[in-house]
């Protein structure tokens, strides 16, 4: 048997994991105590859901659920460079991903598909 090696993909996976780790660290700095307070389960759950949604969006780009680089390009082109409106953009996107009818989505998000499975459902 021959063992396949995917060095380029492994390098990309490592780089992506490092970037997600940096984002996680930044969010912890912006939300001090979120992991330390045992009573803060709601915010910890929200952080977990957020990262699960982000991972899904990156996965969807790589597997054809989204168009090639659709998520990355949308974030880059629809948000300000300082990131001040990124939360609003992602909230709108996550809502659009939970909306079946494209006509009920903002125009700039209509090409994103409906994602079944409650990942983007609001609680």
Proportion of strand residues:
under 5%
Question: What are the secondary-structure elements, in order, as H or E?
Answer: HHHH
State the helix count. Answer: 4
Alpha-beta content class: mainly alpha
Instruction: Categorize the overall geometry.
Output: globular
Radius of gyration: 17 Å
Subunit organisation of the chains: single chain
Give the averaged pLDDT, no decimals.
87
In whole angstroms, the N-to-C terminal distance is 49 Å
**Runs with pLDDT <50, length 5+?**
none
Tell me how many strands there are. 0
Notes on the structure:
This protein has helices at 7-30, 41-63, 70-78, 86-97. It is mainly alpha-helical and 123 residues long. The longest helix has 24 residues, at 7-30. The chain is globular. The termini are far apart.
How do you describe this structure in short?
The protein is mostly helical and 123 residues long. It contains 4 helices and no strands.
List the helices and strands and how they pair.
Elements: H1 7-30, H2 41-63, H3 70-78, H4 86-97
